[in-house]
Recover the amino acids of this structure.
């Protein structure tokens, strides 16, 4: 049985669908099961990753866990996972950790989660993806309100990855001892500027979208409304100060799944209805 945390999220959702398609026993963990529709054949369990002591029912009979990073007590959480007899944890972090500065709050959060999984005594694999194509959903409100997309860090190309491909890699490595002790950096197939993503989205949606860079001071104020200050600083260090180059294209998705990662056009086409 594979436990998928973050099952209502972009990556976990893709992973649950994939495991169901492959006919592998899967259990989807969410905090509010009544709001979650699982694919046929998938068990659903309630669980809060900030409360490791309550994870007993979620972990019962589980051999593999797909785990999100950054919860309150990652060492305690992984202790519960080990006690439950889980053989393999696949942890999602970020490729910002590769050469990242440990005093950057986002890098620190991911590094701490990776350290906890490495020290857990359970088999582990870490997936370090680039920025997600699904971050483009942040444009939904702007698209509903008009034809202008405004986005910060307009000059920064990112080899964005489809959560579908992160899930494909997770499914390919879960339960396979040859991947224990490995950390894989993952990317999409090409580096794109926000303006280039906007042009593809406009074409796919058939809308006359225009792109404008959002000035840094305006972006900082907006991000500060929803994010703690150390995280806002972390993103400015990444993309305004150039601490993190998320543009390199890597062969790992194809190496691990046997097929190239999906393009942004494929992602946009698959999710077009969610922008309408
Ligand atoms: N976005 C990027 O570009 C990017 C890049 C690299 C790495 N990452 C990492 O990817 C992760 C986000 O993945 P995603 O996009 O698939 O997720 P998402 O769509 O943002 O959804 C968040 C998920 O986390 C779950 N969650 C939140 N708090 C929880 C808690 N206390 N206990 C259990 N589950 C909880 C939510 O489940 P419920 O609310 O249903 O319980 C939901 O399924 C983040 O950890 C981020 O650091 C993101």
């Amino acid at each position: 049985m594979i436990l998928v945390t973050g099952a209502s999220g972009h990556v976990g959702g893709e992973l649950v669908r994939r495991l169901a398609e492959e006919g592998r026993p899967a259990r989807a963990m969410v905090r509010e099961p009544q709001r979650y529709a699982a694919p046929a054949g998938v068990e659903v369990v309630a669980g809060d990753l900030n409360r490791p002591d309550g994870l007993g029912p979620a972990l019962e009979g589980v051999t593999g866990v797909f785990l999100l990073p950054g919860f309150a007590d990652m060492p305690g959480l992984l202790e519960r996972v080990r006690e439950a007899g889980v053989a393999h944890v696949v942890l999602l972090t970020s490729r910002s950790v590769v050469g990242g500065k440990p005093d950057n709050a986002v890098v620190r959060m991911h590094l701490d989660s990776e350290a906890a999984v490495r020290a857990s005594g359970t088999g582990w694999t870490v997936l370090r993806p680039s920025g997600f194509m699904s971050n483009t959903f942040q444009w939904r409100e702007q698209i509903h309100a008009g034809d202008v997309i405004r986005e910060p860090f307009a000059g920064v190309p990112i080899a964005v990855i489809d959560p579908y491909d992160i899930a494909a890699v997770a499914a390919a490595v879960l339960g396979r001892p040859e991947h224990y002790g490995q950390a894989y950096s993952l990317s999409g197939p090409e580096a794109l500027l926000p303006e280039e993503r906007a042009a593809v989205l406009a074409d796919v949606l058939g809308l006359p979208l225009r792109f404008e860079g959002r000035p840094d001071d305006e972006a900082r104020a907006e991000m500060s409304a929803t994010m703690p200050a150390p995280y806002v600083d972390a993103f400015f260090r990444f993309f305004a100060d150039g601490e993190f180059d998320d543009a390199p294209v890597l062969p790992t998705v194809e190496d691990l799944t046997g097929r190239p990662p999906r393009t942004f056009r494929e992602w946009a086409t698959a999710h077009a209805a969610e922008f309408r």
Remarks:
- The beta strands are 2-4, 26-30, 43-46, 64-67, 88-92, 123-129, 148-151, 182-186, 210-213.
- Residues 171 and 211 are 36 Å apart (CA to CA).
